[in-house]
């Protein structure tokens, strides 16, 4: 298992200029390797929570720790934290359009200096797990929405991060395709067991996670 425990204690977060805090002493503990759905009405703070855990946003009070260590301060340390510990995926997969699917997965590893044969084998395994074993040489523009979403999920795991932060990764898909992509998401999670926060507005999908946390 690559997941590590996530602990959020007494989080206080108010956006500059806003009268009301998004979080006013929010706490959450997530076990290593858990798949935790984050639900709640629009504007309650789901994306803000993910952004704080990813070190993409700042907060005024409270602590967020991963594997016992705090999310670091400072832009450089946070960038390194994201590279080493966090896999992010969004509603739009944001694949690099001029590179093939396989190259999109290879890129983060090459940036880390890993162009090894093992890395290629690993990429092949990940692609197979999300049902893209035969589509690695395609460009993102040649994929369906569901296939692109699956590639985005796999790319977010290629560095084997401790945390997998997913912000409505099936949000722009039709229900049947969302269901299919969620099946692959479950396969990836079962294989690697990253500690996962999955923001979703889909109660059916949330119900199939190991745990649901409702904000608000
Ligand atoms: N950069 C920002 N500056 C000021 N306020 C913000 C900013 N980003 C978000 N907010 C506010 O913070 C609150 C939480 O926003 P957030 O995007 O986290 O909600 P959410 O639960 O993810 O919503 P949705 O389900 O619509 O995506 C909202 O009231 C929003 O208007």
Automatic annotation (TrEMBL):
Presence of the UniProt keyword Transcription regulation in the record: no
Any one GO MF annotation of this record: ATP binding
Pfam families tied to this protein: ABC_tran
InterPro entries tied to this protein: AAA+_ATPase, ABC_transporter-like_ATP-bd, ABC_transporter-like_CS, ABC_transpr_LolD-like, P-loop_NTPase
Positions of the ABC transporter domain: 6-213
Electron transport is among the record's keywords: no
UniProt keywords, alphabetically: ATP-binding, Lipoprotein, Nucleotide-binding
Protein family: Belongs to the ABC transporter superfamily.
Name of the protein in question: Lipoprotein-releasing system ATP-binding protein LolD
Gene: lolD
